Amino acid sequence: MKKITLLSMAAIAALATEPIAIQKITVEADTTKFDIASKELTTSKSKTMTGDVAEILTDIPGVSIYNMGSRASLPVIHGMADDRVKIDIDGMTITSACPNHMNPALSYIDTSKIEAINVMAGITPVSEGGDSIGGTIAIKSKDPMFAAKSGEALISGDISSFYHSNNKARGASVSATAANDKVSVNYSGYAEKARSYKNGNGAIVKDTLYQQQNHAATIAYKINSDDVVSLKLTKTNVDYIGFPNEYMDMLGNESTSGNLSYKGKFGALLIDANVFRQDTDHYMNKIWGERQAFNPAMPLGMPMYTEAEESGFNLKATLPYSQTQTFKFGADYDRYRLNDWWPPVTTTVGGMGPNTFWNINDGQRDRIGLFAEAHSQWGEKLSSVIGVRYDRVSMNTGDVVGYNFATNAMANDSVDANTFNALDHKKTDNNYDLTATTKYEYSNTTDIELGFARKTRSPNIYERYSWAGGYGSNPLVSGPIAMDMAMINWFGDGNGYVGNLDLNPEVANTISTTISLHDEAEKEWGLKLTPYYTKVKDYIDVSVIGTATAGGYTGIRLLKFVNTDAHLFGADLSGYTTLWDNSDNGKGTLKGTLSYTRGFRDNGGSLYHMMPLHAKVSLDRVSGAWSNGIDIESVDDKESVDTLRKEPLTPGYALVDLRTGYTWSKQFNMDFSITNLFDHAYALPLGGVDVVANPTKGSYIPLQGMGRSFNAALTYKF
């Protein structure tokens, strides 16, 4: 019955969703933006209802999320996630500084600070960055505001708050700007807190609580009408975030960053440049009481610390060469330094001591890139974008130390450490990218786009340099070594991982086409179909070392990062239609999406976390000050799973959400919604396994989703 329901929804989706362009090929400088400020144009999710940027991205065809910590989800584009997707925040590259990737880039910004999001899948222009193969998500903060003319002063701002009944989540944001025609100063702050949520059966899903704050201050100077210089300083502090699908929680994450940017013109040349730096102090341990009672024998728990420094620059120049050709060219650089250490919790040889465990010692990853791109209009109907890119990635790390120097079967850190230290750690990758896309406007109601991309990604520091369990020890029987490996896991699958110095960069070749049908004005109806195919050489996957048979992690799979060849394919279908538009009943719009993704190793077996066939249909009505909507989301059974990771199957489900909003004036706005209206219990297909509720290692029981919640938000603008 579920599949019949899903296929019925697919038929509706063929007539249903507002076109959110993954990529629009033009000769202009920018591609189409995903403007989260406009609910009618883009998304059924109000940005005042949540601070989680990843959550609102799921309305875009082909985008889903790994459900990790409640405020640390990882976006997935066409089956590729995390480091395979480049995330750019105002020109800043932010690399997760954690062996469990608990502080991804999107966790450093909330929805209240964002003006637009540009999502590019697969066929990503080289000007939008390299060192990624799955696509690019470019986040743009709100532009500085200036007074209209000299002598005037501008004072503006907004205050918002929200509340969710299920997990008692509450949050607030404030933003204020003071400016004249030349100088603009802005402050924005955000804070939120929540308890662990309940599933559809009313049971608490332990360790899904969180609390965090972030602040940003921006000062901008308008040199003239075309040139603006701005400096943005941010401070983010996470008190705690629970991770039900990891063996650790995040109990502290402090980050400070600075981003100096310039946008302007030199003659006909448009310049977009910035230089940035971010420092991160990260701390992991367990949230006692959520996971288990405090253990007096281990008063420190298992402390794990990470420090990272990341800095770089971006220089992008756009030259309108003629009325039919525009050239983009530039350079970018990213310098990343990482230390990852775990203090001892015992003085006993053979356990977690007496040494400090150095997981990564002076990890280094430097990337410098050069690119050139041509946007051409070959006639009234035909245009193209062709670009080439070169990236040089240099990596290195220092020698490491284990908890102890014992060499018995239960504690042989020293075997791995000594073997790893004797090897050459320095690695250099020379990566080349090529993209070519073309668009043909067949008629006033039909567009056809074709594209090819060769994209490359080098391994991250943990994929190359995590060492415990992979260099001579016997992790199959060693409890401590299996524990060390279990601390390296950003997949939420309950397994343990070790790096590989011999990894090659991933090289992905993607072909894609998009067929768009619409009315001449592109306002009344539209239908878009995008099939794609990607072949990845040296895809960074895993091989099974074995299964731990002793110690506290008995039963988990122990995995090593290896290269393999893989292929991914699928299609996105989206559409929208105006059902009515009159003075009596306002405007009614039916919209929806349908997405299908599969990924397999060439030698057999599914890749990890392939989202099942899923569809979403929304009916929106806007009439005067009122806006109302109903959303129906259906997800098929998850039957294509990664057997190497013992990924669990999940049953299909359907969820219904209701929402309404009322605007009293230009100053006041209220939003209210009921999510999961029928309190349906369901397993998250990309939620990994719940290691907190199921403490028996190797149980591989999927994480449950949130039950019904009543949500409200209020915004005041001045």
Which keywords apply here?
5 helices; mainly beta; 50% strand; single chain; 718 residues; Maltoporin, Chain A; four-stranded mixed sheet
Largest sheet: 22 strands, antiparallel, barrel
CATH class assignment: Mainly Beta
Sequence stretches where pLDDT stays below 50 over 5 or more residues: 1-43
- The CATH architecture comes to Beta Barrel
Number of helical segments with 4 or more residues: 5
Helix content: under 10%
For this structure, the CATH topology is Maltoporin, Chain A
- In total, how many beta strands? 30
Q: In percent, how much strand structure appears in the residues?
A: over 45%
- Structural class, from helix and strand content? mainly beta
Determine the N-to-C terminus distance: 51 Å
Could you please describe the fold and organization of this structure?
It is a single chain. This protein has one domain: Maltoporin, Chain A, CATH 2.40.170. About 5% of the residues lie in helices and about 50% in strands. The chain is built from five helices and 30 strands. The strands form three sheets. The protein has a 22-stranded antiparallel barrel.
What is shown here, in short?
The protein is mainly β. It has one domain: TonB-dependent receptor, beta-barrel domain (Maltoporin, Chain A, Beta Barrel).
Please write out the topology.
Elements: H1 2-13, H2 53-57, E1 63-66, E2 74-77, E3 80-81, E4 85-89, E5 92-93, E6 114-121, E7 135-141, E8 154-164, E9 169-179, E10 183-194, E11 210-222, E12 228-241, E13 249-266, E14 269-285, E15 304-320, E16 325-342, E17 357-377, E18 382-396, H3 413-421, E19 427-443, E20 446-457, H4 461-465, H5 479-486, E21 496-498, E22 506-518, E23 525-547, E24 557-582, E25 586-601, E26 614-623, E27 626-635, E28 653-663, E29 668-675, E30 709-717
Parallel strand pairs: 4-7, 21-24
Antiparallel strand pairs: 1-2, 2-3, 4-5, 6-7, 8-9, 8-30, 9-10, 10-11, 11-12, 12-13, 13-14, 14-15, 15-16, 16-17, 17-18, 18-19, 19-20, 20-22, 22-23, 23-24, 24-25, 25-26, 26-27, 27-28, 28-29, 29-30
